[in-house]
Amino acid sequence: QVQPVESGGGLVQAGGSLRLSCAVSGSIFNYNIMGWSRQAPGKQRELVASVNSGNNRNYSDSVNGRFTISRDNAKNRFYLQMNSLKPEDTAVYYCYTKQPGRPSYWGQGTQVTVSS
Predict the structure, then answer these.
(1) CA 65 to mean position of chain CA atoms
(2) Which residues contact 97 (CB under 8 A, 6 or more apart)?
(3) Which region holds residue 65: left if phi is over 0, alpha if psi is between -120 and 50, else beta?
(4) Dmax over Cα atoms in the chain, in whole Å?
(5) How buried is 54 (Cβ within 10 angstroms: 0-12 exposed, 13-18 middle, 19+ buried)?
(6) Can you give the chain as a three-state secondary structure string?
(7) Of 4, 10, 23, 64, whose CB neighbour count within 10 A is largest?
(8) Interval 22-62: pLDDT, tens
(9) What pLDDT, on a 0 to 100 scale, did the predictor assign at position 100?
């Protein structure tokens, strides 16, 4: 199985924090890019954060400064720490992994709901 698996979503009040976790298939060193995207009802999927094999990170403008992507090589997991959450962060969050020359694999998604 190559599909990554997310966990950690839930309901939180505005201003609160959540940490999402993504368990990758096999060794984390097999992947050159890993990341998180989200999709809110009626909106297009948005890439919010990514990290590559060199541990270089990128964030969308909408989450920069509030979200942090990190990786734990020993546990073959990566994370999305979300702070100062806003109601507009409400969405289904998906993690994805990418190996060189292969398509991306997406998780099943985890719901994040931020109440005002």
Answers:
(1) 15
(2) 2, 4, 22, 24, 25, 31, 33, 34, 104, 105
(3) left
(4) 43
(5) exposed
(6) CCCCEEECCEEEECCCCEEEEEECCCCHHHCCEEEEEEECCCCCCEEEEEEECCCCEEECCCCCCCEEEEEEHHHCEEEEEECCCCHHHCEEEEEEEECCCCCCEECCCEEEEEEC
(7) 4
(8) 999 899 998 999 999 999 999 999 999 999 999 999 999 99
(9) 87
| Residue 42 φ/ψ region, left for φ over 0, alpha for ψ in the -120 to 50 degree band, beta for the rest | left
CA R_g for the chain: 13
Short-list 66, 79, 69, CA closest to 110: 79
- Are 37 and 46 in contact by the 8 Å Cβ rule? The answer is yes
Structure tokens at 115: 């109440």
Instruction: Report how far residue 33's alpha carbon sits from residue 88's, in angstroms, rounded to the nearest whole number.
Output: 26
Place of tokens 């924090």: 17
